[in-house]
Amino acid sequence: MDRKIYLNNLYDYYSLLFTEKQREYFEAYYFNDFSLSEIAENNGVSRNAVHGQIKIVEEKLEFYESTLHLFDKSEKIRAIIKNLDNEIREKLEEFL
User: Fold this and answer.
1) In the 8-state DSSP scheme, what is residue 32?
2) Would you give the DSSP letter of residue 83?
3) What is the pTM for the complete model shown?
4) Tell me: the pLDDT tens digits for 26-44?
5) Do the Cβ atoms of 96 and 77 come closer than 8 Å?
């Protein structure tokens, strides 16, 4: 899986564990395709500060997943659900 997609998927599960600024920088970089310089300029900080915070978020996302496995478990459940009856599948997918 592409690293960017993987990190975005992990972010869906763990985003609330980060500070507001970390979420803002990560979303600007990964969701809005802003450059580090653009994010830094918009927030009145150095490019290095933005880079550091994004790296922290990336590392923590991978740590949280390696510890909790929420994304991995969800993917396994989705694979199992694909083989179920349509009505049951729809009901289960509502919870994911």
Assistant:
1) S
2) T
3) 0.83
4) 999 999 999 999 999 999 9
5) yes
Q: Which amino acid is at 77?
A: I
Would you call 78 helix, strand, or coil by DSSP? helix
Using DSSP's 3-state secondary structure scheme, residue 66 falls into helix
Report the length, in residues, of the chain: 96
Task: At 28, list the tokens.
Answer: 């600007």
Cα torsion 68, 32, 21, 45: sign: positive
Residue 25: burial class (beta carbons within 10 Å; 0-12, 13-18, 19+): buried
Per-residue pLDDT tens over the stretch 43-79: 999 999 999 999 999 999 999 999 999 999 999 888 8
Task: Write the DSSP symbol of residue 16.
Answer: G
> Can you tell me the distance from the alpha carbon of 26 to that of 30, in angstroms, rounded to the nearest whole number?
6
